[in-house]
Amino acid sequence: MLSRRSVLVGAAALAGAGLFGRPDAAPAFSRALPPPLPPGPETTVRLDLTAAERQLALPCSNGHALPLWTFTDQATPPIVRLKLGQRLDTHLINGLTRPGEHVSIHWHGIRLPNDQDGVPYLVQQPVEPGESYDYSFVPPDPGTFFFHTHCNTVEQLGRGLMGLLIIEGDETEPYDAERILAVRDWRLNPDRSGFLPFLTLEGAGKAGTFGTVRSVNGASNPDIEVPASADVRLRVLNVDPTRVSEIGFDGADAVVVAIDGLACPPFPLRSWKMGPAMRIDVVLRTPADGGSVTMFDYFAASPVPLARLVARGPAIRTQRFDPAPLAAARIAPPDLGKAEQQLFTFSATATGAAVADAAGEDGGPLGPLCLSAGSLWAINKQSWPGSGMDRLPPPIARFTRGTTYRCTLKNVTPRMHPIHVHGHSFTVLRSSKRTLPPHFADTVLLLPEETIEVAFVADNPGRWMMHCHIIEHQETGMMAWFEVA
Questions:
Q1: Is residue 257 within a helix (H) or strand (E), and if so which, with residue range?
Q2: Alpha-helical runs (H) found in 265-378
């Protein structure tokens, strides 16, 4: 039996070996994860969301009001907080007026009951304009999560229809402060007064259609105040529909304490490649009063500054930087000795390869849809059908409940693909190209021509999605579903 300790404790040792990108002065850490903390009492948190078009200005839109689609009356995403053990009761109203523009909510990364997963047609009927729907579940894990719609996602997410979900209850020792850093692009025209097409042929067939304005919490390279000489928890989320970023911090020691919301043994952050939908929790020792730390995206010809953390106030900590690890998650460790093998190959179709070869930088826009705009991508040579989600293909796999599966994720394309699995968190075991710390995740980034092995216990029954979270790839074929029974 592979224990949680044997799966995860090696991350701390690996971290000291200089394997994760850029040099960093932070020392290696060796404290093992504490056991899971008990949930609190099951009280109920009520959440009312109305998906609607609202004319609102983003901090990065130069004062221009945009036709945003949001769940609330604010331009930036709502932040929902629960304590571990609390129930979330959500009443969703579809206030969008475009005919046929239905919605639902997928609670990304939450291991919830299948009927609450929010995938239209697979687990629920879509919420049509003027209709409503109710969700109710108790999140089993603390951590950093988010929620978004799961149909015409490229436009709905592109217009801002999403929210952040924080489940508290994993800190074994309190940090001095917390900040949320939600990283994403916006597809705005040159004067930032309106949107450009969200889905283009060139983007769908290649790496995706990138935004024109980069932001953190809706602002361009903002200054964010933090306490001085303090241990600050940063919840970093890549909520972009397309862009892969390589996140790092210049000017302070930084330590990763969670990946995709779930605790990992602390290791120094040099930089971390984050595909869309991936998250890391970082503890940063801030500089003295007046000092600053810059968060960069290093996945560019030259580093791109995304936000600046500015330290203010008297020093809080003077001792050596040694942040406490978070409590372990309650996830069944995979039994690799008894694991069944499963191969998933992520490829381009013949049409997709032709589009990639032919499409220029001015590849034309594709209209809003909740179906495959074209079969450009595939999983195990099966492309999500162009007829839409209301005509489901057969499942790509059937898993037996309670069985461990060791899955080989093979990317045979020249593009990156962040692969997201619904309803489960898996253990990342190894890569053919990189040395990665063993960790739990719900989304793993496949580099071009990379193979990654993951393992998980199929312990959550139901019908679950698996797809690339570059949304244009998802909506042009790289999506499938599997069943656990």
A1: strand 254-259
A2: 350-358
Residue 476 — left, alpha, or beta (φ > 0 → left; ψ -120 to 50 → alpha)?
A: alpha
| Single-letter amino acid, residue 415 | R
Question: 419-430 burial string, b = 16+ CB within 10 Å, else e?
Answer: bbbbbbbbbbbe
Q: From residue 266, how far is each of 37, 174, 339 by CA, in Å? A: 18, 15, 28
Of 80-89, 115-124, 201-210, 291-300, least confident by mean pLDDT is: 201-210
pLDDT tens digits for range 332-365: 999 999 999 999 999 998 666 655 555 444 344 4
Can you tell me whether residue 88 is helix, strand or coil? Answer: strand
Exposed e or buried b per residue across 347-359, where buried means at least 16 C-beta atoms within 10 angstroms of its C-beta: bbbebbeebbeeb
Nearest to 463 by CA among 430, 432, 436, 485: 485
Digit-coded pLDDT (tens) for 88-144: 999 999 999 999 999 999 999 999 999 999 999 999 999 999 999 999 999 999 999
Residue 282: other Cβ atoms inside 10 A: 24
**Residue for token pair 């988010």:** 146
Contact 107, 62 (CB under 8 A): no
**Cα distances (angstroms) measured from residue 394 to each of 68, 184, 347, 398, 483:** 36, 34, 18, 10, 10
What is the C-alpha separation between 478 and 265, in angstroms, rounded? 32
Residues 152/372, Cβ–Cβ less than 8 Å: no
Q: Could you read off the pLDDT of 235-285 as tens digits, one per residue?
A: 999 999 999 999 999 999 999 999 999 999 999 999 999 999 999 999 999
Angle at the Cα of 282 from the Cα atoms of 458 and 146, rounded to 5 degrees = 50
Beta strands in 72-222 (DSSP E): 79-83, 87-94, 106-108, 132-137, 143-148, 162-168, 177-186, 213-216
Tokens representing 442 are 């719900």
- Among 450, 407, 397, 402, which Cα is nearest to 427's? 407
8 Å CB contact between 108 and 442: yes
Q: What tokens appear for 353 in the block? A: 């390869």
Distances (CA, A) of 388 to 120, 122, 253, 283: 11, 12, 47, 43
Contacts within 8 Å (CB) and 24+ apart, 388-391:
389/119, 389/120, 389/121, 389/122, 389/151, 390/120, 390/121
Between the alpha carbon of residue 48 and those of residues 42, 93, 149, 214, the distances in Å are 19, 8, 15, 29
Query: Positive or negative CA dihedral for 151, 469, 75, 44?
Result: positive
Distance CA 407, CA 392 (A): 23
88 CB-contact burial (10 Å; exposed 0-12 / middle 13-18 / buried 19+): buried
